[in-house]
């Protein structure tokens, strides 16, 4: 996956300041096919950067504070990978906590979780199921968009191929 970042030169003209792979990208050893990428992030009240300096090395939590944002791209392997005898859930949890601090701690053993964010999710490739806490499941495919309003949910790839989704998480105050 390629990331192109724009900024401004000394004269204030628009330029491309970086063009290459997403530097903060991780393929999990504990769950082949699971890939997590953090292309960009902003903190509350942050102004646009004229230089396009990469903020991702300084991100200590994937859960943005109210007014902050995180742009995350995840590839989900088929659920059958979780049933593989070689799958080690303890090792996966350890990798999740290292890769996704702030969110990983909120994920329940069955994958359900809720965050104090509004999330814009776009299915880029494949098919995936959005499961809500009442058990309701909605099938999604490439091009479908989901708006998550702090609801408890899980993502299920019940197909035979990986599914990739892009998410923009916008930090909010926790609702009632």
TrEMBL record:
Coiled coil: none annotated. Pfam families: Cupin_2. Residues 111-168 form the Cupin type-2 domain. PANTHER family: CUPIN TYPE-2 DOMAIN-CONTAINING PROTEIN (PTHR36156:SF2), SLR2101 PROTEIN (PTHR36156). This is Cupin. It comes from Streptomyces cahuitamycinicus.
